[in-house]
Design goal:
Blueprint lengths: L6 E6 L5 H18 L7 E5 L6 H10 L7 H13 L2 H9 L3 E5 L2 H10 L4 H4 L11 E6 L2 H6 L11 H10 L9 E5 L4 H13 L14
Parallel strand pairs: 1-3, 1-4, 2-3, 4-5
Helix pairs in contact: 1-9, 2-3, 3-5, 5-8
The structure holds P1-(5'-adenosyl)P5-(5'-thymidyl)pentaphosphate and sodium ion (NA).
């Protein structure tokens, strides 16, 4: 029987290279699969927020400061945006396709805790989503991130918010499935580290749902 796909989440601070590396990993997996004669895609990319979804469009407007939203409502919208992809993730994995995901519920929890929303409430709204086989935490030093360009114009792109998120993110870590990627290196070095971790992941263990975050 063909093996299942993997569900891999990339998390980390702004400009740690998550989007760059998520695209690169999908490209590498699909190239290798095509070389092996597989006509179908072996990996897909997914990103949260999905600014194209019905809910993601509103989140996008909030991030661009075009609309204001109550922070509780926003938190639930980020979660709801992920639940819109619940089935798609599960079906892809069941069909042997790897899902490489750029940010997930850990961003949701970290940003909302950084804003001061109540912890138990914040940690509950993503329960039931697919559990990642691995969370790759992109660890970038503030000095290196600063060299990758200044903050953009979006609402959460401030050094104050980044400091708070940087303090919260490590508290969400679960060593059972979180792996740290040294994101300070050049693109090729980071790419190799990501692929090395990818190759070691186990497709045999059962695919689970998140019972807690
Ligand atoms: N959010 C998100 C919540 O509040 N709740 C939630 O539930 C979720 C899911 C949107 C915002 O929403 C918040 C968090 C965010 O504030 P976003 O759209 O993912 O999040 O944010 P972006 O601004 O698109 O992405 P990031 O700032 O997080 O950057 P990345 O993806 O980590 O970095 P990347 O790959 O775009 O690279 C940044 C720059 O560095 C260069 C790249 O070319 C690029 O110019 N670079 C490198 N340069 C040198 N060496 C390397 N190794 C490099 N890797 C990348
Ligand atoms: Na990004």
């Amino acid at each position: 029987m063909a093996s299942r796909g993997l569900f891999i989440v990339f998390e980390g601070l702004d400009r740690s290279g998550k989007t760059t590396q998520a695209k690169e990993l999908v490209k590498t997996i699909n190239q290798k699969s095509a070389e092996a004669g597989n006509p179908n895609p072996a990996a897909i990319i997914m990103n949260f927020p999905d600014r194209q979804s019905v809910i993601g469009k509103l989140i996008d407007q909030y991030l661009k400061k075009e609309i204001d939203l109550d922070e509780h409502s926003l938190h639930l919208m980020f979660s709801a945006d992920r639940f819109l992809k619940n089935q798609m993730i599960r079906e892809s994995v069941a069909n042997g396709i790897d899902v490489i995901c750029d940010r997930y519920c850990y961003s949701g929890v970290a940003y909302s805790l950084a804003k001061g929303l109540p912890e138990t409430w914040v940690r509950s709204s993503d329960v039931g989503l697919p559990k990642p086989d691995a969370v790759l935490f992109f660890d970038v030093s503030p000095e290196v991130a600063a060299k990758r360009g200044g903050f953009g114009q979006e609402r959460l792109e401030t050094s104050e918010m980044q400091k708070k998120v940087a303090a919260v993110m490590p508290t969400l870590r679960d060593d059972a499935f979180w792996k740290t990627v040294n994101a300070d290196g050049d693109m090729e070095t980071v790419e190799k580290e990501v692929f090395r971790i990818y190759e070691q992941l186990d497709r045999q263990k059962p695919f689970e749902s998140l019972e807690k975050i």
